[in-house]
Amino acid sequence: YTLSPSEHFRIEEGKTNSRSKSLLLVVTKPLDRETIPVHRLLLTASDGGRPSLTGTMELVISVLDVNDNAPQFNQSVYNVVLPEDAIEGTLVVRVNATDLDLGIYGEVIYEIDTVVPPSASDVFSINEKSGEIRLRGALDFETVTLYDLHIKAKDQGTPPLSGHCSVELEVLDVNDNAPEVWVTSLSVPVSEDASLGTVVALLSVSDRDSGANGRVRCWVWPAGPFGLEATFSGSYSLVLREALDRERVSEYEVEVRAEDGGSPALRARRGVRVPVSDVNDNAPAFAQAVYTVLARENNAAGAELARLRARDPDEAGNGRVSYS
User: Fold this and answer.
1) What's this model's pTM, rounded to 2 decimal places?
2) Among candidates 249, 240, 242, 225, which has minimal Cα distance to 313?
3) How is 20-78 classified by DSSP, letter by letter?
4) pLDDT tens across 11-29, in order?
């Protein structure tokens, strides 16, 4: 007996006393259905006559499947970029894994194994059949800039085999945070004879966004005797730029305004009330320098000859006038 060339099978003759022989087809190398699902062999029997006569038969061997292949993803890492204002239901990515086995051994079910950071486990969902990963929560660049999802695909064998991949989601910043302005120190009232450069207030300005969205410019409105000076990143001083005169303006209401570099830009403002305190910088002034008074010669002692009045625009004691 002879068998057509095969690396997977050979024949053995069984021991028997009869004229017929029993033959055994023996597997010599492990089978792999995914490589060769069907083997076709030709068995030839030859007698000992001259010339020899032969008979043949074909052997068709179908290899049955077992769950020996784990699902394999077409990528080990999926890189995704989404803006932080992506709405709920947005498709993040569709992962895909294949299993070379048949039937339930090749049916793949997807699940999210772990999420980094763990607090974001409820931000994403996955369709166990299609592998579509969607948002079910809000992204926030200012809280988390990068998510790492570990995805598992498992087949329906017993026990099931599984494959893994990761999805790295980078969150892009959008201009969703307006600047914030705080007054950290306020020195009021300001004396009207304060020197130029006197610091009236200290302010802190910040924007939680990044890049151009977080770059803030500040100014004082309305333009007047005060200006802003940057001390270090995010900190400003409100300083006196022009001389004050309480008798002209006794109190200022100014706004420190901030605007970021986003498009469109977001703005913030903080009001600062600056009262001006008085100094004795004004002398009393009569309405006229010379008064001409006509008096009767027969006036009694103590009679009023004239009434004079001097005004002083200063405040409180600085403006109380006495006469002599």
Assistant:
1) 0.73
2) 249
3) S--EEEEE-S---TTT-SEEEEEEEEE-SSSS--EEEEEEEEEPPP-S----EES-SEE
4) 988 776 666 678 899 999 9
Q: Are 254 and 220 in contact (CB under 8 A)?
A: yes
Looking at residue 142, its pLDDT comes to 93
Of 1, 19, 22, the C-alpha closest to 10 is 1
Count of helix runs (H) and strand runs (E) in the chain: 0, 24
Q: What is the DSSP letter of 84?
A: T
* Cis peptide bond N-terminal to 51, omega within 30: yes
Is a pLDDT exceeding 80 seen at residue 8? yes
Q: Comparing 72-172 with 180-277, is the CATH topology the same?
A: yes
- What is the rounded distance in angstroms from the CA atom of residue 297 to the CA atom of residue 151? 117
CATH number of 2-62: 2.60.40.60
pLDDT at 316: 92
Q: Over the stretch 223-241, which tens digit does the pLDDT of each residue have?
A: 889 999 999 889 999 999 9
Token pair 């320098």 is at which residue? 289
Class of domain 180-277: mainly beta
| pLDDT given at position 20 | 66
Tokens of 134: 């969607």
CATH superfamily entry for domain 72-172: Cadherins (2.60.40.60)
Q: What angle do CA 74, 78, 79 make, to 5 degrees?
A: 150
Report domain extents, the chain.
Answer: 2-62, 72-172, 180-277
